[in-house]
Predict the structure.
Amino acid sequence: MFKKFMLNAGIMLIGSMLLAGVASAHVTVYPKEATQGSYEKFTVRVPSEKDIPTVKVEVKFPMDSVAVSRFEPKAGWTYELAKDSAGKITGVTWTASGDGLGSTEFGEFNMQGKVADAATQIVWKAYQTYKDGSVVEWVGAEGSDKPASVTTVKAKSGAVTDSHGNVTAAQPAAGSSESKTPLYLSIAAVVLGALSLLVSLTRKRS
């Protein structure tokens, strides 16, 4: 009886692990967290879930949350940009020039963009096309079978990242305590000088 229980428990555990693996195997955009106003390198990770290759990946950009402007070339793939009437990039489609991504493979596609100053999250809608023409739409809400990848955006910090990835400290506002530091140092120097003079005079008199 105990052996049968352990066997069933083992089967259920293996089954849950397999299901978890399938559930987690979806198009994901990294990083999962970014900062308002920063320039980020975004990586679209694409696994294949079928026994046939993935030959096309399309990602749409939420224009109110991020402005993607640069794309890293990827061997074996070409890319085409979608633009609106104003010429702004609204999405990208990568198409395999060879065999694509096999059932045991995954691919990563890199791009760079600026996170909007007022963004709170970036919802990446992705469309994965297989060689047989079937399309999997990763556009659902969190917790659904085919969720869109989401990057959480946090408020601005004291540091700023430019388009080259360099991080610099934010400049203090006019009238802030940091901007008055030289004045405070000058006053301290004058006070110390006066104290030194008084000590010197006191020693001479004594």
About this structure: The chain has a mean pLDDT of 80. The chain has two helices and 13 strands.
